[in-house]
């Protein structure tokens, strides 16, 4: 119920602040769960995915609790809106993380992962992908849904945010390295061409650095 309530309030607020141009909703697998991968540019990326993906299966994000506890409002939003899988960056490779993600997928939840593991350098560019998402998807036997985001690096009021949801990549029988390469190529092909529009950019600094 809290999850649905927050969505009820947050989605109109997102629509008020930004204009979302979305393509490929039909590519979201139904029924069943999946691993979502997306490029990462700023704080809006997580909320854009929550807004665009179905309520069920509930989307969970990998989040560092040592950072979230210092950002009380963001901590509350993550816990209430989308759920999270705890991952401490200093323990990269910790098997506990893998168990958390595996249990989430086994229970029917979906997981959203930013395979660049950091903010991208600028619009339209991708950092090399880490293979973790491929391992998770292959073990759980769920597809990988690539989502390309454009326009979230710098934000201002009523900015147009472009989102392209690509066809799901099957994970069954795949090799993690090959699936990672396929995902990178698919994401590169999906990425919209970005050019900064002219005109006034109200609240640019405030919205860009909101979280």
Unreliable segments of 5+ consecutive residues: none
The number of domains is: 1
**Number of helical regions:** 8
> Can you tell me the CATH architecture?
3-Layer(aba) Sandwich
**Helix percent band:** 25-40%
Oligomer: single chain
For CATH, the homologous superfamily is named as: Glycerol-3-phosphate (1)-acyltransferase
Average per-residue pLDDT, rounded, comes to 87
**Through-space gap between termini:** 25 Å
Looking at the structure, what is the overall shape? globular
Beta-strand portion reads: 15-25%
Tell me the total number of β-strands. Answer: 7
The biggest beta sheet is recorded as: 7 strands, mixed
CATH class descriptor: Alpha Beta
Give the strand line-up of the largest sheet: 1-7-6-2-5-3-4
Structural class: alpha/beta
- CATH topology: the name is Glycerol-3-phosphate (1)-acyltransferase
Give me the Rg, rounded.
16 Å
Q: What is the element string, with H for helices and E for strands? A: HEEHEHHEHEHEEHH
Describe the fold and architecture:
The chain is of the alpha/beta class and 211 residues long. The chain has one domain (2-208): 3-Layer(aba) Sandwich (Glycerol-3-phosphate (1)-acyltransferase), CATH 3.40.1130.10. Helix content is 38%, strand content 17%. The protein has helices spanning 2-17, 44-52, 65-68, 72-82, 95-106, 132-140, 176-190, 204-208, and strands at residues 18-23, 35-38, 59-63, 84-86, 110-113, 144-150, 159-165. The chain has a 7-stranded mixed sheet, with helices on both faces. A hairpin with an 8-residue loop joins β6 and β7 (159-165). α1 (2-17) crosses α4. The radius of gyration is 16 Å and the shape is globular.
């Amino acid at each position: 119920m809290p999850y649905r309530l927050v969505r009820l309030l947050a989605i109109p607020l997102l629509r008020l602040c930004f204009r979302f141009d979305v393509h490929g909703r039909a590519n979201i697998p139904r029924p069943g769960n999946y691993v979502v991968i997306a490029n990462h540019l700023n704080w809006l990326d997580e909320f854009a995915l929550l807004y665009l993906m179905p309520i069920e299966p509930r989307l969970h994000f990998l989040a560092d609790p040592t950072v979230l506890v210092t950002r009380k409002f963001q901590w509350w939003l993550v816990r209430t809106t989308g759920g999270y899988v705890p991952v401490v960056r200093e323990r990269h490779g910790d098997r506990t993380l893998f168990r958390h993600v595996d249990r989430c997928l086994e229970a029917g939840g979906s997981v959203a992962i930013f395979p660049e593991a950091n903010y991208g350098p600028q619009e339209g560019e991708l950092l090399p992908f880490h293979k973790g998402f491929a391992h998770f998807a292959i073990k759980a036997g769920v597809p990988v849904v690539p989502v390309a985001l454009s326009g979230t690096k710098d934000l201002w009021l009523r900015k147009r945010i472009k989102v392209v949801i690509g066809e799901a990549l099957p994970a069954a029988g795949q090799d993690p390295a090959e699936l990672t390469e396929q995902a990178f190529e698919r994401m590169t092909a999906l990425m919209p061409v970005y050019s900064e529009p002219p005109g006034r950019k109200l609240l640019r600094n405030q919205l860009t650095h909101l979280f």
